[in-house]
Amino acid sequence: xxxxxxxxxxxxxxxxxxxxxxxxxxxxxxxxxxxxxxxxxxxxxxxxxxxxxxxxxxxxxxxxxxxxxxxxxxxxxxxxxxxxxxxxxxxxxxxxxxxxxxxxxxxxxxxxxxxxxxxx
Length: 120
Ligand code: 5GP
Fold this sequence. Notes:
The chain is built from four helices and five strands. With 120 residues, it is an alpha+beta fold.
């Protein structure tokens, strides 16, 4: 799948749509999900134009990959989720139910989440 410059997260990155930011660095932006599925529900996205994990892992620089993973950990820690635990998940492609074609991981916590959030 090629990258669509008009996807919602591209617009957020360009500042065309507001977001409730929780973290930003050279490589990564993190913000609250507009439709939270848990008491804490934050999305972490690389700033680069990557659709999927395969796309990101094949094309991103070492610094982008390290920056992204470090940001996921930092955001979870800063949100106070480390002690009680949380879930990190990424929906990829049609079978994964990915709605926004810009790679993102969900960080969900603040309550017991069950074995999975959704399989349906
Ligand atoms: P996906 O299903 O692609 O893994 O997740 C996309 C997520 O983006 C959904 O949880 C949805 O609520 C969230 N989302 C969609 N549009 C917006 C938006 O404009 N702002 C924010 N903050 N989140 C959005």
